[in-house]
Amino acid sequence: GSRASPGSVSTRTESAECSIRQAIALWRWSELGGGAGTADLPDALRVEAFVAAQRAHPDPSAQALAHAAARAVAARSGVGELVEQYDAAIRERDAAGNAPPEDWLEATYQPRTREQQELSELQNRRIAELASRLAAVSPRFWELRMPRPVDVAALQAKTGADARLLHGDEALVLFMIPPDSRHGLVFAVSKERVGWARLHLSRSELQEKVTSIRSSIDGDAYGTGKTTGSDSLGALPFDRTLAHELYEQLFGDPAIQGVLAAPSTWIIVPSGPLTSLPPSLLLTAPPTGGVQGDDDDEALRQTPWLVRSKAIAILPSVAALRMIRQILPVEREAARDPLLALVDPDFGAPPAAEIVPPKTRSFTAFFRDGQPDVSALRALGRLPNTRAEGLALMKILGAKEASVLWGASASKKNLLGLDASGALAQVRVLEFATHGLAAGKDDGIAEPLLVLAAADRPEDWILKASDAAGLKLNADWVVLSG
After folding, report:
1. Residue 272: count of CB within 10 angstroms of its CB
2. What is the number of alpha carbons within 13 Å of residue 428 lying toward its C-beta?
């Protein structure tokens, strides 16, 4: 889509599909030896495919991060009001039903009336005018709002501004998972090496394995569709053999291991089913101590979890690395207040007449038609020990008692009020100690969230990832504890 008028869902989907096809075609050509020209040699094809793979899976969290960074820079460069006008104009057009349809071939789509067409033209001219003004006074805004893919040369740069993107002891891993039965690709890049490999599992096969692993640590696999019939953690034994097999299938190719072996930190950019897999659950070697080993404390103690040998970081996109390493540090201000902790929120006591709380903890159990189900949220258990955690942080950091918000005070309203006043931007350590919900499929919302104190409106009980991305933060640490 253009900068003046964000593209429709179908346009973005078509663009992603083109990039998937391009990356897979480049892999196949490379396997056949490539071409005679310098740009067609296997190494050059791999570099080109790495850029195509970044375009293949646009992520809602990455988009939220990009928009938040753009707004922050625009506000500090004096064009924040112009950005607000631009965003408001788009919202007004979309609310009037004049946004580009998601699918021009949809049978139910009806052409606009003359009045609608005229209004749409006026709104789009207004959006284009504001976009042109922004381009003239703040070119960097567009660089942030619509970030371009990062190429291998930038990641491996040893001098200049790009030298800070990837550290010498780090490797970046990018997964491209097609939405159908095609097998995807995995790329690994360090300061010295680059490798790529074909994944030998399709999306559905990956989903099945990830769901099995999730089911053994959560009774409802976080809404992925495979329930165990129990709420308790550990309802199923943890399949360490499967965790090792999945590690081998994701990271075990010699071309990938050649890049990943030396660096102590892996920065992983997942896609598809891998977005719900904590890599720390994987095993780098076959387990010992029986078929599962769950009843053998010593076997569990000796289990080669990935997190024991590598530090793991997760990013929604490769471009996010440029934002957090290059752009945002320049815009960041020094914070003076030691702590703000939102802990043990009060979800309100459920009236006796309300329905019995759901037996599962899946995302869908707490939502109805994309809106929070207040009766289900009220049934969430309080977390009294998190108040003690917040008070301990207060003591350690030498913060004031008012820096710990708990009960009814641990609310989205109070958080946004501190953000609006600028007080949140002065906090060095920000903690949320509450329940978190991970998005599953078909739940009407595509991002994870935190549950805060009871509020008048259902949407004010929750803090979505996109809400969090819009907060003005200069914190050294943001701690999520639940």
Report:
1. 20
2. 11
Tokens coding 441: 């499929």
- Other Cβ atoms within 10 Å of 413 Cβ, number: 15
DSSP 142-175: HHHHSPPPPPHHHHT--SSGGGGTS-TTEEEEEE
The average confidence (pLDDT) of the chain is 82
What distance in Å separates the CA atoms of residue 321 and residue 328, rounded to the nearest whole number?
A: 10
Among 148, 173, 176, 145, residue whose Cα is nearest residue 18: 176
Which among 204, 152, 175 is positioned nearest to 268, based on CA atoms? Answer: 175
C-alpha–C-alpha distance, residues 10 and 316, integer Å: 21
- Quote the DSSP letter at residue 327: I
DSSP 316: S
Residues ≥6 apart with Cβ < 8 Å to 158: 191
pLDDT bin (cut points 50, 70, 90) of residue 183 is: very high
Q: List helix spans (H) across 261-364.
A: 297-301, 306-309, 319-322, 328-331
pLDDT surpasses 70 at 195: yes
Q: Cα separation of 435 and 357, whole Å? A: 15
* 266 closest CA partner among 182, 186, 185, 178: 186
* Strand spans (E) along 357-464: 367-368, 371-372, 404-407, 427-433, 436-437, 449-451, 462-464
Give the Cα separation of 441 and 429 in Å (integer): 33
Q: What stretches of 112-229 show up as alpha helix (H) in DSSP?
A: 114-137, 139-145, 152-155, 203-215
Q: Report pTM.
A: 0.74
Residue 76 to residues 65, 146, 447, 467: CA-CA distances in angstroms?
A: 17, 18, 28, 20
Whole-number Å distance between alpha carbons of 136 and 132: 6
Candidates 361, 348, 340, 372; CA nearest to 463 is 372
Nearest 5°: the CA angle 103, 109, 111 is 115
Sign (positive or negative) of CA dihedral 134, 136, 141, 144: positive
Answer for the pair 26, 20: CB distance below 8 angstroms, yes or no. no
Residues in CB range of 291: below 8 A, 6 or more apart: 241
Given its phi and psi angles, is residue 183 left (phi above 0), alpha (psi -120 to 50 degrees) or beta? Answer: beta
Biggest alpha carbon–alpha carbon distance for the chain: 76
Q: How many CA atoms lie within 13 A of 466 on its CB side?
A: 9
* Cα separation, 53 vs 27, whole angstroms: 11
**CA separation for the pair 320, 52 (Å, rounded):** 16
154-170 pLDDT, tens digit per residue, is 999 999 989 999 999 99
SS3 at position 322: helix
